[in-house]
């Protein structure tokens, strides 16, 4: 006997991204109006830096609104984005009586939103979650788009799931408490978006990068809006990365590898900046970008206070090996995506944006850096 289990699904995972300042009240109003359905119990997941700045206040406001809330705190930093920390969150939530009738509110940067989103996706086989992004890196990339994951000792983001939040709040006001190094790290993802999708945005960054580092309100609002606009155009066409979404990995093949080899002494954006320059220099050799536009990209990263060369102490043979742990590797071959001049991407036919690159080709470029 054979049975066919018909399980076709029509899914609407659409959600809002609210960009503004001091959005705590907006979050509370949304929870009251049923953003997470009938949930009355909220796990506020945050890190040791953000707890005192924003998360404790948000948990307090949720309680004042008549719900129950507990905070769950991980140590700040990329080293917390692990399976072990996911287990810690899950066990802590279970101990505090959290079951399937809860929702997760992630308050923090990319590590918190990636880890909390993944935890929410598997806790009780899936509970709703909301991202309250407090950093530029989370605003530019991590909190939007539904990729959630943890790192493993082998490489970053290898274990995870697509899991879309119920809503994303991008609170630009929180950037004022970001250390400059963290703001610069977020700027790498911002420069990446300009390189891959918007020449005007690139020119704006060239005009205003120092203003952004000084937290100029208008300049920060501009980049918050632009980052979302560019990322969403891509994600809405290819949520599961069957083709186009690969372009969002610009600079990440080398970036992710160097981040791991540095043992996370480089911040994500710092590693991505080095990766952006590596792909631009390789792209120049392959005729995808002019020397002038490579120089512009490099100059912009420098002005954003980002590294553009490989720091001393990075083991280069280990870095080359680590490139092969990238998720874009197919049949053991490295694949890179390339910016086309500034503001668009090289397409290799159809929906294919990846090009096979040999170890020797990328090795030569890394030797010059
Ligand atoms: N961070 C790359 C992506 O969201 O696809």
Spell out the helices and strands N to C: EHEHEHEHEHEEEHHHHHHHEEEEH
Largest sheet entry: 6 strands, parallel
Structural class: alpha/beta
Quaternary state of the chains:
single chain
CATH class of the largest domain: Mainly Alpha
Could you list the spans in which at least 5 consecutive residues all have pLDDT below 50?
none
Percent range of helical residues: 40-55%
What's the mean pLDDT score?
Answer: 96
Distance between the termini: 63 Å
CATH level 3 topology of the largest domain:
Dehydroquinate synthase-like, alpha domain
3D structure, described in words:
The chain has 369 residues and is an alpha/beta fold. It has two domains: 16-176, 3-Layer(aba) Sandwich (Rossmann fold); 181-368, Dehydroquinate synthase-like - alpha domain (Dehydroquinate synthase-like, alpha domain, Up-down Bundle). The chain contains 13 helices and twelve strands. It has helices at 24-32, 50-64, 83-95, 110-122, 136-142, 180-197, 199-213, 217-237, 252-261, 268-285, 291-303, 316-323, 359-368, and strands at 16-20, 41-47, 68-74, 102-108, 129-133, 147-150, 159-162, 167-171, 334-336, 339-340, 344-345, 355-357. The strands form four sheets. The chain has a six-stranded parallel beta sheet, with helices on both faces. A two-stranded antiparallel sheet has the order 6-7. Strand 10 and strand 11 (344-345) form a beta hairpin. Helix 5 (136-142) packs parallel to helix 8, helix 9 packs across helix 10 (268-285) and helix 9 packs across helix 12 (316-323). The longest helix is centred in the middle third of the chain and has 21 residues, at 217-237. The protein is globular, with a radius of gyration of 20 Å. The protein starts with 15 loop residues before the first strand and ends with a helix. The mean pLDDT is 96. The structure holds glycine. Glycine is lined by residues 141, 145, 147, 245, 248-249.
